[in-house]
Structures are given as structure tokens and as C-alpha cells.
Design brief:
Elements (H helix, E strand, L loop, with lengths): L5 E7 L2 E9 L7 H24 L5 E6 L6 H4 L8 H5 L4 E2 L10 E3 L12 E3 L2 E3 L2 E6 L4 E7 L5 E2 L32 E2 L2 E12 L7 E2 L2 H4 L13 H9 L16 E8 L6 E4 L2 E6 L3 H10 L5 E11 L2 E5 L8
Parallel strand pairs: 2-3, 16-18
Antiparallel strand pairs: 1-2, 3-8, 4-13, 5-8, 6-7, 9-12, 10-11, 14-15, 14-17, 15-16, 17-18
Length: about 325
């Protein structure tokens, strides 16, 4: 669902800063839901235009889960004629262009090389549904100022990153739940300046010019599941005592070497360590192959990531190389 946009005006060393917190409609790749994100964007754009009319160099930071890729217009050009984030809101990647009158917002994703633009995962690909967008006022010599090239993705070992380098998702499993989020948080650094020169702009190192469709069409990086350490997964499985259940938060997201027998069910299942688990893969061809080759009561062997879906425990086969 889409939530109300939260606007907050704060005082930073005596300077006003407008913050807009967003959570737009989910379903980034679905053209049917984009119309709702367009309305989200239109509401936000209307308010920003009001502020810019009062002060063209007002300091604005837009953040949150926009459920939109930074290059939404290019990525879904075949299915979406208009996008909320790029066409309506005006988020773009030419860092120098915001000094002019036509483009007043800059998406900080463009600070990173395309291969590093990644904060969330979906079906084997990294995405950029979380966004930080700034106005031209963050580049001038008045009030709050963005620190050039300070944008990044917060990956904290032992907290929000699993052993595959992916977001450690929140789960309600266990008495208190566990995990963090299915998105890595974003960060950027800001400072304040004593100058009162809104017509002068800070010098930039390696200023982004990702304004063309060619530049924004760089493919989203894929997750290399084939590189996962399956030897480590086998060792984890072998070292488990027989009387220990893996259906606990401690093992969610872990990869196991699964050797069991296909269960009797409409969906593909496996009996492993005395318990029944669903077996799933997002690879449709591999899913069909597994069903054809493994009938009820027959042995099955693969590597699977332990997870939950609609309160059912499952193993997810992330890559064909995980089937042995």
C-alpha cells in the first residue's frame, strides 16, 4: 500500500531543511500499479514546486522506499509510457543540470558506478527501490550542503548482511522475530556553510552525467548465486546434531545441502531431517525439470536456502548449479 508522504522542516545550525519521507505503492515492475506511484509523485512534485517558487534554492532531501528504480523510465520503457519517479517527479542523473532552471532534482544513485547501484533483491537481480534525491539548494554556498560523493549503501556485517552478501530480511519466526530488512539503507553526508551565496555552486569531482537513455539503460547487476560457497553449506549440514531442528531464526537464509525423499503433495516437497519442506525455484524451466525428474518417494539432492513463505518452511534453489 502507499502511505502518506511525511514532510518535516528542521533547523540545521540555523538553516531550514525540508525532508520528505516516502513509501510509494509497491510493485515496481507492474504497469498497473505505476499509476498509483504517479499520483504519489504528483502530490510530492506539487509541494516541491510550491517551495521552489518561494525559493529556487531551497534545501530539500527526498528519501524513502519509492518502489521505483532510479532509471524506471528506461528499465520499463516497453510497458510504461509515463513513470512517477522520472517523468512526474523529475528525478534524473545529470549532476550539473540542476544548476539550471529545467532540472531541479538529482538522484544520488548516480553517484555510484552502475554495478554498485543496488540496495534490494528480486528474483536474482539487484534493485534500487530505496532512493535519496536532493534539490539544487544542496549544491550552493548557502545553508545545508551535500558533501560530494558521500552517498553510499549501508552494509553492516553481522547486522543486516547475510553470508551471501544479501539483505538479511526480517522474519517473524521465533518468539521475538529476527533479521533486519529486505532493503539495505542508504546514506549521504551533509554539512552547513556560513556563506550566503545561493548563485555559486560547489566544485564537483567526477560529476555524473547519466542523463541520456544509454547511460541510464545499464542493466541492473545480477546476484551471482553460482559463486555461493557450497562447501560451507555442506559443512553446515554435516555438523548439525541429529536432534536439532533448523526451523529457527538462526538458520533462516542459510544454505544447506539437502538430501531427502520427495513428499506426497501437489507442490514439490522434500522430507529432510524428519520434517517436510516445500522446494521452490524462480527458474521456471528448472522448476519443471525438477517436477519431471523427481516423483513421490524418490530421492532428491540439492542445495537450498532456508526460508518461509506464507508461514510454510521452504528451501529455495537459487541457481541451477545448486542441483547435484
Amino acid at each position: 500500500m502507499a502511505r502518506a508522504i511525511l514532510e518535516v522542516k528542521i533547523d540545521v545550525d540555523g538553516h531550514p531543511l525540508y525532508l520528505f519521507n516516502n513509501h510509494w505503492k509497491s510493485g515496481a515492475s507492474d504497469p498497473g500499479t505505476e499509476k498509483i506511484r504517479i499520483e504519489n509523485a504528483r502530490t510530492l512534485r506539487t509541494r516541491i514546486d510550491q517551495l521552489l517558487k518561494e525559493d529556487p534554492n531551497v534545501d530539500i532531501v527526498i528519501g524513502g522506499d519509492l518502489n521505483s528504480q532510479y532509471n524506471q523510465r528506461v528499465r520499463y520503457r516497453r510497458t510504461m509510457d509515463v513513470t512517477g519517479i522520472n517523468d512526474v517527479l523529475g528525478s534524473q542523473g545529470n549532476e550539473l543540470a540542476i544548476r539550471g532552471p529545467a532540472r531541479d532534482l538529482y538522484n544520488l544513485w548516480h553517484e555510484l558506478p552502475p554495478a554498485e547501484r543496488a540496495s534490494d533483491t528480486f528474483r536474482g537481480q539487484w534493485g534500487t527501490l530505496m532512493n535519496l534525491i536532493v534539490s539544487r539548494g544542496l549544491y550552493d554556498y548557502r545553508g545545508v550542503q551535500y558533501i560530494d560523493n558521500s552517498f553510499g549503501v549501508a552494509k553492516l556485517a553481522g547486522l543486516n548482511v547475510d553470508d551471501k552478501g544479501l539483505p538479511r530480511r526480517w522474519s517473524f519466526a521465533g518468539p521475538a522475530g529476527s533479521g533486519f530488512s529486505d532493503h539495505f539503507p542508504l546514506y549521504a553526508k551533509f554539512t552547513t556553510v556560513r556563506d550566503n551565496r545561493p548563485s555559486d555552486y560547489i566544485p564537483l569531482r567526477n560529476a555524473s552525467d547519466d542523463s541520456s537513455e544509454t547511460a541510464s539503460a545499464a542493466p541492473q547487476p545480477k546476484i551471482d548465486y553460482a559463486a555461493v560457497d557450497l562447501v560451507k553449506a555442506a559443512a553446515l549440514t554435516d555438523n548439525l546434531p541429529d536432534d536439532v531442528s533448523i526451523r529457527t531464526p538462526d538458520y533462516l537464509g542459510k544454505v544447506f545441502r539437502v538430501e531427502g525423499v520427495v513428499g506426497k503433495a501437489k507442490r514439490l516437497t522434500v522430507r529432510f531431517r524428519g520434517e517436510i519442506y516445500d522446494v521452490w525455484t524462480y527458474d521456471a524451466a528448472l522448476r519443471e525439470k525438477l517436477r519431471e525428474q523427481h516423483k513421490t518417494g524418490e530421492p532428491i539432492r540439492f542445495y537450498g536456502e532456508l526460508g518461509q513463505f506464507k508461514q510454510r518452511w521452504q528451501f529455495v534453489i537459487r541457481d541451477p548449479s545448486w542441483v547435484k
